[in-house]
Amino acid sequence: MEILRGEGVSSGIAFGIIHFSGKERSHAEKRIVEDWQGETVRYEKAREKATGELEKLYAQTLEKLGEENAQLFEIHRMMLEDPDFSGCITEMIRKEHVNAECAVEAAAHRFSDLFSSMEDEYMQGRAADVKDISHRLLRILENGSDETAGPEKQQGAVILAGDDFTPSETAQLDTTHVCALLTQEGSRNSHTAIFARTMGIPAVIGLGELLQPQLEGMDCIADGFTGEVLLSPTAETKAAYLEKQQKELEHRHGLEAYRNRESITKEGRRLPVCANIGGPRDLAAALKNGAEGVGLFRSEFLYLERPDFPSEEEQFRAYREAASAMEGKRVVIRTLDIGADKQAEYFHLPKEENPALGMRAIRLCLTRPEIFRTQLRALCRASAFGKIAVMFPMITSLDELRRAKALTQNIQKELAAEHIPFDEKMELGIMIETPAAAIISDLLAKEADFFSIGTNDLIQYTLAADRQNRSISSFCDPHHEAVMRLIRLTCKHARENKIWVGVCGELAADPSLTTEFLSLGIDELSVAPPSILPIRAAVCESGPLPLQPPT
Ligand code: PEP
Ligand code: MG
To answer: Of 352, 324, 321, which Cα lies nearest the Cα of 338?
Structure first.
């Protein structure tokens, strides 16, 4: 048995088969195929194979997990049989002489957009199913007709491997099959690691050259605690790791006692622990872990999972869903933070030498106000359905805050004129994630309704250490005194100006800082859903606090 060693960035033990994700990365390439009849036959064969896979999955799931869980595969099979869906694909092949992959992808976009735009929530949910069946078809088409070429490998528990994953790749992962992530590169604060923690799946990064494509299909155990990956483990090793997994489950079970408790210290100080989410699909995990609100909704993930801009209506539905699900608890939605590592092709952002210091987040929104307007309208409209607060990312100056606020207020006037309801008291706050914002937080606090400290970027910009770059991680101490001073300064200015201040970067989930955050007068911590209970436990069990909060 061979052991690979990397860095565990999302805890847990997973058992599965290694699968390299390379092929799922890019869009299907468009090719002109003269023999359109042959291409149609190729598509039909792929469809038959997909149907066979789904029938098998249905039978297996029915036996193991019952009808309720198996039904999804039956729905997928029926969708594959649907003459409209298949007709759309074969017609495109016939009329446009394009390859089957391209036609499948185009039909999938068309149908998933159609479902997404429907009023009925059940029908909206079918959009994800269309994507799922098209991924199945594409995988079969790309792997050829060879039975052993791989589809089975992706069923059951898959440990997904790659050099690294972009945020849009992680956002599209099918977490019903993927039980762990392994990467050659990556870093603790990269969005892959954040995503894994949000979904509660183990992740080991930085495996470098050890993670070779030859490992495809190999049975392995990924240990997200130690960063070890055990290849072809013996029955004995598996048994030992099953025990370790069981212990972890018992530990988590012990934390259940905190699920329905408020986050209050023994001295009676309240410090709510909220959830960081990437979209409505994370709401279930937030609720399951007893989130006292959503402290960060990374809205850019709504833009990353698609080929074109999400419409106002689609965004409105996602924001409304979050607001309604949290039943009056605050939901802080961060406006589009695209750019740097979070890229979507259709924005056509220019290539930059230093994208983390470039056209990202609020800079992009203020430069292209038509994109910002659509999002702000959706946010303001959704604010009528719960307690939404809007947060602007990457602020470095008062002028940026003023311009973002002015655009929001214009939208609110517009909605009032159209008699569309919205919450007039919706809070408008900012992320403190640049040293500039922390340093002028006294000025910003006079015009923002709240602050939320984004420690991931604050650390990167303060220490001049790229959060994506693993090779410099030893130079990047997340508890660096410079970072802590900026956090303290921000808290002081928030308190002096009587606005609330939260922490939504990954440091919020670091239990060694919980007491310090309490003594600084932090009002809210927001963490990935699986970290809610451990941090609530840290708040509830924290000892006496210093009488005078340090300034
Ligand atoms: C942060 O920078 O700390 C933050 C919460 O935002 P993101 O990780 O999405 O950049
Ligand atoms: Mg950030």
So the answer is: 352
Which residue CA neighbors atom 1 of ligand 1 most closely? 454
CB distance 80 to 178 below 8 Å: no
Over range 12-33, report the average pLDDT. 79
- 3-state class of 427 per DSSP? strand
What type of residue sits at position 1? Answer: M
CA-to-CA separations, 420 to 375, 411, 423, in angstroms, rounded: 15, 11, 10
329: buried, middle or exposed (CB in 10 Å: 19+, 13-18, 0-12)? middle
The mean predicted confidence, pLDDT, of the chain is 90
Bridge partners of 431, per DSSP, are 452
The answer to whether the CB of 427 is under 6 A from ligand 1 is: no
Contact predicate 472/495, CB 8 Å: no
Cβ–ligand 1 distance for 433 under 6 Å, the answer yes
Residues 6+ apart with CB under 8 A from 147: none
Find the 449 Cα to ligand 2 centroid distance in Å: 19
Q: What is the rounded (10 degree) CA torsion for 280, 51, 180, 514?
A: 10
Rounded CA-CA distance 329/6 in Å is: 39
- Taking CA atoms only, the protein residue closest to ligand 1 atom 4 is 454
Helices 532-540 and 235-255 pack at an angle, to 10 degrees, of 50
Say if CB 16 and CB 179 are below 8 A apart. Answer: yes
3-state secondary structure 180-235: EEEECCCCCCCHHHHHHHHHCCCEEECCHHHCCHHHCCCEEEEECCCCEEEECCCH
pLDDT in tens, 5-21: 999 999 999 999 998 87
Residues linked to residue 4 through DSSP beta bridges, in sequence order: 229
Q: For residue 261, which of 283, 233, 290, 282 has the smallest C-alpha distance?
A: 290
Structure confidence by residue, pLDDT tens digits, 42-88: 999 999 998 988 888 778 667 655 575 567 778 888 989 999 999 99
pTM above 0.85, yes or no: no
Which of 338, 457, 490, 525 for mutating ligand 1's site (highest number of atoms within 8 Å of CB)? Answer: 457
Cβ neighbours of residue 406 under 8 Å, at least 6 residues apart? none
| Residue 188 pLDDT greater than 90, yes or no | no
Torsions phi, psi for 386 (to 5 deg): 170, -165
Least Cα distance to 410 among 372, 439, 383, 445 occurs for 372
Structure tokens at 345: 């092709």
The terminus-to-terminus CA distance of the chain in angstroms comes to: 53
Give the position, in ligand 1's atom list, of the atom nearest the Cα of 194: 8
